[in-house]
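Shipment paperwork, digital attachment
Item: protein structure file
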Amino acid sequence: MNEQVEVERIVELTEELLDCQHTGEDQGLLG
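Attachment content:
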């Protein structure tokens, strides 16, 4: 159970990081 929770947390963090990178790239292209 604990391992599953840790994996879910890591996935959420990685998704947030990818979102930040994508928004940064979009801003760079628009700017």
